[in-house]
């Protein structure tokens, strides 16, 4: 994504301690998940030059605390009109107390318009009630986000083809997980079809998802126990290289820090 692109993604933090990504067009600012405290999400938005009061929607992937923790307070405090977009299963599982804002339901496969963004939800495979990922388009650019999924579903495969920025889970290195300190049942859960994508899974996904438009790959939800940034990045870079694609790879860290574009435009905080 170059400096003239119409869509910007700011990875405010990713991992089991919290997840939040800001997607910014010329007119619209939305969050995918809000899994830190409201105060922390605001602080990170402001550090990226984004005004929390301009958030017009939070797109929720699923009900786990590391994805929904701050939503209710964030919307109440900063953006009372904020639409909280979630599947009915996610809303039910989260309970009415956990999600705030103005509830907007979405079904996997549905498209939705928020400001100048077109949003499509697609089914993911995770130990949650009705989890989804999102394909977000605006200004001639598309970003796809698929995290917390044990396998790449056919719907994800369809939705993530031809994106400009692919944010895909690279949770663990299988050998590090197998030999690591996690209890057996947790290892089984992570490795299951309703768990998390490994680096190797993400690399395999690139073979079907990497198209001519792809400009950037971001690995999401890296485990600090069962993976390293260097391993995740190397596995994905090597696969892209083998596919003949010179596409930069970043790993979204728990503290954030990846921004596809320097701050600019009308959404800057005053
Ligand atoms: Zn998670
Ligand atoms: Zn989860």
Task: Give your account of this protein's structure.
The protein is of the alpha/beta class and 270 residues long. The protein contains 9 helices and 14 strands. A 7-stranded mixed beta sheet has the order 6-5-4-3-2-1-14. A hairpin with a 6-residue loop joins strand 1 and strand 2. Helix 8 (199-209) packs parallel to helix 9 (229-242). The longest helix has 14 residues, at 229-242. Mean pLDDT is 93; it is low at 263-270. One zinc ion is lined by residues 16, 19, 64, 66-67, 148, 221.
Which H/E pattern describes the elements? EEEHEHHEHEEEEEHEHHHEHEE
Radius of gyration: 17 Å
> Helices and strands: which structural class?
alpha/beta
**pLDDT under 50 segments (min length 5)?**
263-270
Q: Which whole number gives the mean pLDDT?
A: 93
